[in-house]
Design brief:
Distance between the termini: 53 Å
Shape: rod-shaped
Radius of gyration: 46 Å
CATH class of the largest domain: Mainly Beta
Low-confidence stretches: 330-369
Order of helices and strands: HEEEEEEEEHEEHHHHHH
CATH topology of the largest domain: Acetylcholine Binding Protein, Chain: A
Largest sheet: 6 strands, mixed
CATH architecture of the largest domain: Distorted Sandwich
Mean pLDDT: 79
Helix content: 25-40%
């Protein structure tokens, strides 16, 4: 063996014009990590190399029937097979021995922690499928010295990897594909094997922690439209909801992948949800301004507003105001009416009491004395009461006019609120259908 060990620096071929054939197979044992920001994939492989050593051939009959032995790998020549996409040193435990058959065929099993560059596409996160490339080939030897070929079919590599895949975490193996080709650089050519490892992310974690809470907050925002805008401060509720959604976005920011060449669609989804909440708040501000329009300027509803809003828009959205019930923002009070239908206080006479008779009607003789105009002592108080009653009448008239204006603007505000609420529901429904359709297409294609 010492003579063979002394030839370790030389390629083990009797005729150097014949290339050494290296057969390669591997099993994907674990997906250790995917770094979207640095575009790096970390995997753990069981790599197996086969080649023929023409100087290590013996007859088993002359060696007591020994057909296979193990030798130190550093004492023998080995093909310098590397992965072209590697970006970091291998820190896995090295296997120092190889198996040598009596025919000169050598098998070397290696454990390889591979840190490789991969073009990660995260637009469809968390339903993304990544396709990373592993290119196996010799580093120094050209096609005239070393040829590479797969030891197993790519279907067998994929089946073995799915069988032994352990620490996959959030990733699962979809398939392993590959082909052999020749890499040409200048006048030299290298024989290479290109293998595509297709992995798919498990989205359950992100659906539970991101999509479902966001959907709940959007549902609460939709249900907030059922709060009566005239009696409840709906704007404060929506502002609190927006603040809570902003805190949610800050918390989940660590779970979202980030790259310099793209933004995942789930990030766009959250941004649009926040924009829809802001639009909902603006709608509440508009409705609140309409409902309080009359209390600021005491303006009547313009004619074009009556025609457009109360007639056409109300018919368009099938909105009907109950005729026997007034708007909720104006409370109708029953006012007593007088005997003749006039409002105000009055005095009634008991039915069983006879009308008072004049003394002359009873036949009594009464001496008539000439009347003299004498000022009544309570006349001044009566005039003051009359003035107070006039002021009170003016105030009640003003309140009645303001109540009528509030009634009109309340009607307009509720029609606009129903219209904007339906438009808001239409926007959310279309947006949800687009997002769900895109994700379903990507899932079916993967």
């Amino acid at each position: 063996m010492q003579a063979v060990f002394d030839l370790q620096p030389f390629r083990p071929a009797v005729n150097l014009s014949n290339p050494t054939i290296a057969n390669i197979s591997f099993t994907l044992y674990a997906v250790l990590g995917v770094n979207e920001k640095t575009q790096i994939l970390t995997t753990f492989l069981w790599l197996r190399l086969y080649w023929h050593h023409e100087f290590l051939v013996w007859d088993p009959d002359e060696c007591d029937g020994v057909t296979r032995i193990s030798l130190p790998v550093n004492q023998l020549w080995s093909p310098d097979i590397i992965v072209y996409e590697f970006v970091d040193d291998d820190v896995s435990q090295a296997c120092p021995y190889v198996y040598v058959n009596h025919t000169g065929h050598i098998r070397w099993d290696r454990m390889l922690r591979l840190v490789s560059a991969c073009n990660l596409k995260i637009f469809s996160f968390p339903f993304d499928v990544q396709n990373c490339t592993f290119t196996f080939g010799s580093y120094m030897h050209t096609i005239r010295d070393v040829r590479v070929s797969p030891a197993l079919t790519f279907e067998e590599m994929s089946r073995n990897s799915k069988l032994y895949l352990e620490a996959s975490g959030e990733w699962e193996l979809v398939d392993i594909l590959g082909e052999t080709s020749i890499l040409q650089f200048g006048v030299d050519e290298w024989d290479i094997i290109t293998i595509w490892v297709v992995i798919k992310r498990r989205p359950v974690l992100y659906v539970v922690n991101l999509l479902i809470p966001s959907s709940f907050l959007m549902l609460i925002d939709i249900l907030s439209f059922y709060l009566p805008p005239h009696s409840v401060d709906r704007a404060s509720f929506k502002m609190t909801l927006i603040l809570g959604y902003t805190v949610f976005l800050l918390i989940m920011n660590d779970l979202l992948p980030s790259t310099a060449n793209g933004t995942p669609i789930i990030g766009i989804y959250f941004s649009v949800c926040l924009a829809l909440m802001v639009i909902s708040l603006l709608e509440t501000v508009i409705i609140t301004n309409v409902l309080h329009h009359s209390s600021k300027k005491y303006q009547e509803v313009p004619h074009w507003v009556r025609v457009v809003v109360l007639k056409h828009i109300a018919n368009l959205i099938c909105y009907r105001w109950p005729e026997d019930v007034g708007p909720p923002c104006v409370q109708q009070e029953d006012k007593p009416e007088g005997p003749n239908g006039s409002s105000g206080p009055w005095v009634t006479q008991p039915a069983n009491q006879a009308p008072a008779q004049h003394p002359a009607d009873r036949g009594d003789h009464v001496a008539v004395t000439p009347t003299v105009a004498v000022p009544l002592p309570g006349l001044t108080e009566l005039q003051q009461i009359r003035e107070y009653l006039g002021d009170l009448r003016d105030h009640l008239t003003s309140l009645q006019r303001e109540s009528q204006l509030q009634d009109q603007w309340c009607h307009v505000g509720y029609v606009l609120d129903y219209l904007l609420f339906r438009i808001y529901l239409l926007l959310i429904s279309c947006y949800a259908l687009v997002i769900i359709s895109m994700w379903c297409v990507w899932i079916s294609q993967s």
